[in-house]
Amino acid sequence: MDGFDINIMKKMNILVLLICFFGCSAQKNEPTWDLVWSDEFNYSGLPDPLNWGYDVGYIANNELQYYTDHRSENATVSSGNLLIIGRKELYNNSNYTSARLLTDGKNSWTYGKIEARIKLPKGQGMWPAFWMLGQDIHTVGWPACGEIDIMEHINNESILYGTLHWLNGNHVSSGGSTQCDVAQYHNYSIEWDKDSVKWLLDGIKYWEVNIKDGINSTEAFHKPQFIILNLAVGGDWPKNPDQTTVFPDTMFVDYVRVYRSVLK
Length: 264
Description:
Blueprint: H1 3-29, E1 31-39, E2 53-55, E3 65-67, E4 75-78, E5 81-91, E6 94-98, E7 100-102, E8 112-119, E9 126-134, H2 137-140, E10 147-152, E11 159-168, E12 170-179, E13 186-192, E14 196-201, E15 204-210, E16 225-233, E17 249-263
Parallel strand pairs: 3-6
Antiparallel strand pairs: 1-17, 2-7, 4-5, 5-6, 5-17, 7-16, 8-13, 8-17, 9-10, 9-16, 10-11, 11-12, 13-14, 14-15
C-alpha cells in the first residue's frame, strides 16, 4: 500500500472514531422510560376506584354538561377501553351528561412521560381532553397551580392542541397545535423534566416550553400534578352543539401510562 492510500485509511479511521464517540455520547444522554403507574383498562365495569375519582356537577368554562359519578352511562370500562360518554339527556337541570375522571388525591407526579392512547369523538360542541393540574390547586387555586393540557380537541377540527397555563402576574399560556385525525387511535404524550415540557403525537414532538429554573414564573411545573380525562359538551371555546352533533358520543381510552426518566 503506498503512502497516499495509508493517509486515506488514517483519515477514515479517525472519522469512524469520531462518529462512534459522538454517537455513543449522544446515546448516553437519551432518556429511557421506566413505567411507574398505569391503567390498562383490562377489566370491566366502573373505572378502578384506586386510580380514579370524579368531578361532579357543572365545573367551568360555561360548559353545558353535568358531570356524573359512578354512573356507567357516562364512564365505564369495556373491551379494554375506558369509555367516557357524552349524552343528550335531562339530568339535574342539565340537557347533557358526561364524566370527568381524575387521579386527584390518589396519584400525582413531578416530571416524567405521561401518555395515553385515545380515540376521540368529533362533532360541533364536543371538547375531549387529557390534561393535568397542580396537586396544590386546593390551596393556591388556578392558574397558580399550573395546568398542562396534554391533548385537547374541539368540534370537527383535524387539529390537536397542547398548552401550558400558569400565573405570571396574570393568567398566561403557551401552546402549540398539529394536524391529527382524532377519530383514529393515537398516542398523546408529554415528556416533562426540570428544563422543559415537550408535547408529542405518536412519538413526534410538535411543541416545547422552557421551564428551566422557573423561568417566566413557571415554578408550578416543578411540583406534583394529577391527571384528568374528560369529555365536555359546549363551553366558551367550542360553543354549543347543533343539529349536526351526534349523541351519545364516546371518548375511547386504551390506556394511561406514567413513566420516569432513566438516563442510559
